[in-house]
Design a protein that fits this description.
Helix content is 34%, strand content 21%. It is of the alpha+beta class. The protein has two domains: 67 residues; 102 residues, Rieske [2Fe-2S] iron-sulphur domain (Rieske Iron-sulfur Protein, 3-layer Sandwich). Helix 1 packs across helix 2. The longest helix is centred in the first third of the chain and has 36 residues. It is elongated. It starts with a helix and ends in a 12-residue tail after the last strand. The model has no long low-confidence stretch (mean pLDDT 82). It binds FE2/S2 (inorganic) cluster.
C-alpha cells in the first residue's frame, strides 16, 4: 500500500467513523444548534481520520512482523520440508544435499534416515560431503565428520547437528529445519 493510498484510506475511514459517531451523538443529545453539531462533526472527522490512518499503519507493521517471524514457512530453511522417497539415499549411499534446507540426508545402517545440518559446529562454515574421502570435511579449519555426522577430528566440539525427521505415509520424509528444534550432538 503506497503512502497516498494509505492516507486516502485513513481519511475515508475517518470520514465514515465521523459520520457514524456524529449520528450517534445527535441521537444521544436529541437537541442542539446546527452550528454546534457541525463543529462536533468536524472535530470527530479530524480525530477519526487520524485514528484511521494510525490504525492502518499499525495493522501493516503488525502484519509484516507476523509474516516475517511466522515459523512455519514451507519449502525453505526455517520451515518443514518434504523430501520424496526417490531422493532418500540407499543405506550408506551418497548423501542427498538439499540446499534450500541447508541439510544432507543420509541413511545409516544403525539409525535410518537422518538430516544433518551442514553448518559446522565450530564456527559455522558450510560443510560439504567429499565423495573421494567418504566424509564431511569443513573447508575452514578442517573438522572432519563421518557419514552419520559424528565428529572424527578437528576443532569442532561435536558432530554435525541434526534436524528432526518424520517419515511420511508416502514413503518420503519431512525435515524440520527450524534452527530452534535442531538436535545438538544427539548421537555421540
Ligand atoms: S568452521 Fe568448520 S572447522 Fe572451523
Amino acid at each position: 500500500m503506497t503512502p497516498l493510498v494509505r492516507t486516502l484510506a485513513g481519511l475515508a475511514s475517518g470520514w465514515l467513523a465521523a459520520k457514524v459517531f456524529g449520528f450517534l451523538e445527535i441521537l444521544q443529545a436529541g437537541h442542539g444548534s446546527a452550528s454546534s453539531k457541525k463543529l462536533t462533526s468536524r472535530r470527530s472527522f479530524t480525530r477519526n481520520a487520524a485514528l484511521g490512518a494510525t490504525g492502518i499503519v499499525t495493522a501493516q507493521v503488525t502484519g509484516g512482523f507476523v509474516w516475517l517471524l511466522w515459523p512455519n514457512q514451507t519449502g525453505a530453511f526455517g520451515g518443514e520440508i518434504s523430501i520424496a522417497e526417490s531422493s532418500i539415499p540407499e543405506p550408506g549411499g551418497e548423501p542427498f544435499r538439499y540446499a534450500p534446507g541447508q541439510f544432507f540426508l543420509v541413511n545409516t545402517e544403525e539409525d535410518g534416515v537422518r538430516a544433518l545440518w551442514w553448518k559446522c559446529p565450530h564456527l559455522g562454515c558450510t560443510v560439504p560431503w567429499i565423495s573421494g574421502e567418504d566424509q564431511f570435511i569443513c573447508p575452514c579449519h578442517g573438522s572432519v565428520y563421518a557419514y552419520n555426522g559424528d565428529r572424527v577430528s578437528g576443532p569442532a566440539p561435536y558432530g554435525l547437528n541434526e534436524m528432526l525427521v518424520t517419515v511420511n505415509d508416502n514413503g518420503g520424509v519431512t525435515v524440520d529445519t527450524n534452527p530452534t528444534t535442531v538436535l545438538v550432538d544427539q548421537y555421540e
